[in-house]
Amino acid sequence: MPTIPSPGPAVSPDAAGSTGPIPLSAHEPDAATLARTAELAAAELLAPPAPARLADVVPAPQRVVPDPAEDWLLPADAVIVASADPAAQAVADQLAELLRPATGYPLPVTDAARPTPVGGIALVLTDDEGLGTEGYRLVVTRAGVSITAFTATGLFHGAQTLRQLLPPAIESPVPVAGRWVLPGGVIADRPRFPYRGAMLDVARHFFAVEDVLRVVDHLARYKLNHLHLHLTDDQGWRIAVDSWPRLATVGGATEVGEGPGGHYTKADYRRIVEYAAARHITVVPEIDLPGHTHAALVAYPQLAPDKVAPAPYTGTEVGFSYVDPADERTYDFVADVLGEVAALTPGPWLHIGGDEAFKVKGEVYTDFVERVQRIVADTGRTVVGWHQLAPAAHVDGRVLQWWGTNGEDPTTAEAVRRGARLIVSPGNHAYLDMKYAPDTPIGQDWAGLIDVRRAYDWDPGSHVTDVPEEAVLGVEAPLWTESVTSLAEIEFMLLPRLPAIAELGWSPRATHDWDGFRDRLAGQGPRWATAGISFHRAPEIPWPTIPSQRRPGQADAATL
Fold first, then answer.
1. Which of 28, 32, 203, 307 is the most buried (most CB within 10 A)?
2. What is the pTM of this model?
3. Residues classed as catalytic
4. How do residues 380-396 score in pLDDT, each as one tens digit?
């Protein structure tokens, strides 16, 4: 693994992100200071070695230099000090909220023009653009911990790394007796790809806001930065639209298996968007067009080719529904819906689906897509769609989400040559609704079985033939929910495969190594168990002994 120079003596970052020796006091220490110093020294002598190694992080950091002589014990009176910037303060508050429950420590948060980590944790915004918009530098010494970044997003990612370096008990929701030791050394880290995401299908089965927020937390833990919400499909319409109110009240009243369905009010959706943004995650809303629109046709039959309201649909077959591409009212509908969704979504992306519109063919399909792409542009957003959009004319910034199972795709490669970028989501590696094994109790298998190794052993930068890495915006792991009905089942399908996709998106290609990854991933199991998170105990991962821990009402993942 590449390394960076040894951190040498204890250092503290200055306001510009550079480092220098920790300054000595200009005054003689008083008796209280001497006593406190002796107390800390005694605690360090009694503290066990750090249970984690500096490199035991998922996703793998770009560069790591361990220094066991600099292991740091988090003291009960530690302070978190951040740059005097509201965004840095917000990250400091979040870090304190993560650490307080298990430690029982007060961990007060303060700010300073030049934060230093002496005796605690410093979060430092720097003007060093070399760290990039998401990178960070974490330094652990016996004097304290510093996270330095160019942006608050980088500080947030650094805080997630710090969290993983503490013992697994840090995930406990109640105080745990123990010593909280961090391994000493330096991590310098930044992502490989700018787009790293997961998709949650809330159309086939509807999930409450709280469930979606918990998925956001899982993404944040592994430095994923986009949540794609598949909001509309044949089985249900999940977002309120004021100009077409029956979409939610009628189109949202169904789901697979004849369940009650549901939809998000605008306040619900804003809550999801704001919660994600606070964790440096961008929501990507998808309104699937021109197919996968049966629920919309139930609500508004004038959008249907025959203008007849179909019966509600709760099955799982695809490809039979579509809005009428020859009717001007269809484009009024599209403009109204995309305009309202764009107004609710501060991120740059609007996803328009475009897949499996089997009854809208050839020029009729491409004309429809080109017109909808222009409608997206008129909202000020950038269009994203499944790779079936590829034959349509290019618009500035267009992104295609590729979900094929064979990397040979000349049509998509040609769209890239015309300027499109790709989000790579191969169905046989990244679709997390696929079963782990033949006996997995839920999931699909049309793209094959995806165990953890298959989710990990591929390269987004070279997966699609004749598409250069510089055209790959990033990677996304979709979770379709035809057979997924609860939060416990969402977690079971996401974990432990989601961290594999996260590592492909974040870590340098040179760090990708299955044997190393499986060992690091195994260390996440006790953390999930302590936090009450359901997950699949994949047999190819050497899990340590993990106690069964459940929240009230939660299913044990092993029984799914």
1. 203
2. 0.91
3. 356
4. 999 999 999 999 999 99
C-alpha span between 125 and 113 (Å, rounded): 10
Choose among 397, 464, 247: nearest CA to 334.
247
Helical residues (DSSP H) of 166-221, grouped into ranges: 209-221
pLDDT in tens, 194-223: 999 999 999 999 999 999 999 999 999 999
As beta bridge partners, residue 477 has 198
Distance CA 550, CA 173 (A): 12
Kindly provide the residue ranges of all beta strands, DSSP E only, lying in 290-440, ordered along the sequence. Answer: 349-353, 382-386, 399-402, 421-424
Predicted confidence at residue 3, as pLDDT, reads: 38
| Structure token pair of residue 163 | 């969290």
**Which residues lie across from 124 on neighbouring strands?**
148
- Paired tokens of 26: 């200009």
Tell me if residue 167 falls in helix, strand or coil. Answer: coil
Query: Going by C-beta distance under 8 Å and a sequence separation of 6 or more, which residues neighbour residue 33?
Result: none
Give the Cα-Cα-Cα angle 93, 96, 97 (nearest 5 degrees): 85
Peptide bond just before 496 cis, omega within 30 deg: yes
Q: Rounded distance, CA 486 to CA 396, Å? A: 39
Going 398 to 402 to 408 to 411, the CA torsion angle's sign is negative
Q: Which of 376, 380, 400 is nearest to 390 (CA)?
A: 400
Do 303 and 251 form a contact (C-beta atoms < 8 A)?
A: no
- Rounded to whole angstroms, the Cα distance separating 345 from 266 reads 11
Spatial separation of the C-alpha atoms in residues 276 and 144, rounded to whole Å: 30
